[in-house]
Amino acid sequence: MQYQLDNSLKLEVMEKGKGRIMEISSLIHMAGSNFAYPYDANTLHIKLKTKTNDVQEIYLIHGDPYDYREVIPLGSGMSSVWEWQHSRDRMKKVGTDGVYDFWLVELKLSHKRLRYAFLLESFGQSYLFYEGKTVLIDGKDDPRLNKPLNFFCYPYIRWNDLYRTPDWVKDTIWYQIFPERFANGDTSNDPKDAKSWKEPLESGRDHYGGDLQGVIDRLDYLSELGINGIYFTPIFHSNSNHKYDTIDYKRIDPHFGDTKTLQELVEKAHQRGIKVMLDIVFNHCGFYFDKFQDVIEKGEASAYKEWFHIKNFPVYDKKRPLTSSKKLNYETFAFTPTMPRLNTQNPEVKEYLLDIIRYWSDIAPIDGWRLDVANEVDHQFWREFRRVVKEKNPQAYIVGEVWHDASAWLMGDQFDGVMNYPLNTAIVDFFAKDTIDATQFAHEVNAINFRYPKQVNASMYNLLDSHDTARFLNQADENKGRLKLAYLFLLTQTGSPSIYYGDEVGMTGGQDPDCRRPMIWDKEEQDLELLAFMKKLIRIRKEHVVLRHKGELNFLPLPGHPDVLLYKRVENKDEYYILINRSSQKQDLQLPKEMCQERFYDLWCEMPMITTNSLELEPYGFFLIKRSV
Ligand code: CA
Predict the structure, then answer these.
(1) How far is the CA of 202 from the centre of ligand 1 (A)?
(2) How many Å lie between the centroid of ligand 1 and the Cα of residue 111?
(3) What domains can be seen in the chain, in order of their start residue?
(4) What residues are annotated to the active site?
(5) Which of 43, 90, 323, 428 is most deeply buried (CB count within 10 A of its CB)?
(6) What is the pLDDT of residues 355-401, one digit of tens each?
(7) How far apart are CA 432 and CA 477, in angstroms?
């Protein structure tokens, strides 16, 4: 809710002649949203946005709505007077996007109910911002601070409404595998037209024979790399190599293996502490899904005609080629005829799809589900999906494919996280393409982090690239230095970082299908220096919880150095500083005062370091250092 500037208020400030007027219409807070959410059973987070550099201090005035104390008792010759018992907590400015400043306060509550308002100090004036109104007040002792009836309300922290995300996710480093292209462990199940592994990829229809046995065979490699989660793109029966057009949801694709192979894979991965996440496609099915074929065959007489979004019958003219078209008479994913949209609002379809989750959860202890085209499926379906998944495994991870602001799915009743493409875009723009500078990058990252609850940020699926994007290296003009810096950034952020198979050995490739080339296994062709870099980076992330999720993120400005990023991760006395030079030019920096002539430990070079007032950064160089205490 935004509040329009009140003209009488503006006049009042002007009459006082105190100069700048706070932009009241820029105050943004929404009760009952991700601006006011419980972090745990006794902790509330309250957030506010103000116009950048417009407000110098903010205090949250808050208390239990029913907690009054009698200050003048009855019988004293006057009517009794009761006073609201409340506290005043300073809010912290946690970042800016250059347009808004972001403020947060964490409240530890002995009670679970809250009335609250914001006391803002702006250019010598005090304002009170409460539900529906902003007023000028006479400083911190104004009597209006004691009357909470029209303050914002957080009615009650209810335990079953708490947004719980799985604990293990924030400590997980994912490795994304496109099974058809990772490793061929069983040539007996190869598609007839499978190419040999080193033949160049030519089309989106190529097959190479990769399978689940290939992944089992390479678990040593993955353990040595240090990852502890595998995300598989779909493995269920389909004719395509990507398998996003499912024919049979209860069958492992025969080219990938069978139920036993999956069970063995999950068991062996778990023995190594590696979690397994599967991809499920409920937005649409494949053209050859038996229920859709039934509708094609029987038309209006089909028992499944309500399972899809059919515009008219007959559904499909067999003479029509299965190529992209806007003239289809059934709804599809994009304009792809091989992917008819499922009607997830139909109770029969819903039950059918949810049963698939129960089915696989009983076969193997699956740790997570990645949901394809999640934003086009109804929210009600995802609420029931969450209930079914968490009944089977309360610690299962649910991550949706949503490329844009995903707040509508991240309120606690649907997903635990989403594929963080907005972060991905910012990283590509700064580290690969130079289309934004360090300040703009910091603004974008701040805005993304402020959008969601803290527990959600810790379980976001953060990535540089995937089967749906060009590889980062390709976007960075094949510059390995930039790839390393981008992964350094990703692995020193809150959230669950992912490595797309082969990035770690220097694989490249443009948009789909080129980004899905067969994995390079030949050591002669692997970039072993890059692989060693990635292993070291993963080890450092695993050793320092502050770099994973404990530390607050603060960007520090470096005026005059648009190519240099400086940020720190802080938890109490643990302070980590990361300096990154994304350019081909050496950088001579004046360090911020807090870093001058201080003792640090260089985590990368594994040696102590004492700073002066300046620092040299090599082209594509970086420092990852921790303050010594
Ligand atoms: Ca095979």
Answers:
(1) 19
(2) 59
(3) 7-161 (2.60.40.10), 169-283+346-546 (3.20.20.80), 286-343 (3.90.400.10), 551-627 (2.60.40.1180)
(4) 372, 401
(5) 428
(6) 999 999 999 999 999 999 999 999 999 999 999 999 999 999 999 99
(7) 7
